[in-house]
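Q: Could you fold this chain for me?
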Amino acid sequence: MSEGTVGSEARDVSGKLLVALAVTLVLAIAALVWCYGLSNHLSVAEQKLAAAEQKNTQLAEQQQALSDRLRATTETLGQSVGLTQKQVEARTQALMNAQAAQLMAVRAQSEKTAKLAAEEQAAEAKLGAVQTDVSSVKTDVGGAKASIAATQSDLADTKAQLQRTIGDAGVMSGLIAKTHDELEILKHKGDRNYYEFTLQKGAKPTLLSTIKLQAKKVDDKHSRYTLMVSADDRNIEKKDKSLDEPVQFYTGKDPVLYEIVVNNISKNQISGYLSTPKGAVQPMAAPSN
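A: Sure. Below is the predicted structure, expressed as structure tokens.
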């Protein structure tokens, strides 16, 4: 082989080596650059990862605190709800008891009302029977009432006319009867004894009870008269007396008040009555002629 051929081949090998070396160098530089960039990326990523982990830790802590607060709030709320529930149950029980008591009271009142209604019906039935019996005698009673009312009216009118006055002896007399009907009322009262008389002017003395009476003078025009009274063996002249004037005198062993009232004067005649106490001596029998 010639020297030129060898030299040429040597140059070719050197060139290839240089090229290979250059490529290797470039690749090494590129690798270094890539490694540097990768290292920077890894550092940033690690920083971000550390920040993320720190953030996650903070979030976890916040979540735990929130969970604790929620648990406490839930327990407190549960206790409050429990108390409220107890209060509601107690209130409900009280209302039920009150309603039960009210219902019992209403039932008792209803029973009482029913009993009263039954008693009232029974009473009404009895009253109806009594009214039936009463109605059967109403006519007779009505007639009797009318008669009684008329009699009472007459008595009331007659009593209204009775009066007291002072007698000629200055003593308050009893009630004075001016008519026969009024005298009958006095007799029924039973306070004194009463004896009616009629005397003719100029006639002989008339025995009345324990005394004698004689009409001496009669003045019917002026309603006046004079009367002779014989009592206890003595004569008493009652002169110029008027109609309805009580003529009084005392007589008897134990003197008691006698009273004469003339309530009617006509021509030559007087009529009236003698009033004596209940304890006075009883009338003597009329002497035979």
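A (continued): Helices lie at 3-161, 180-189.
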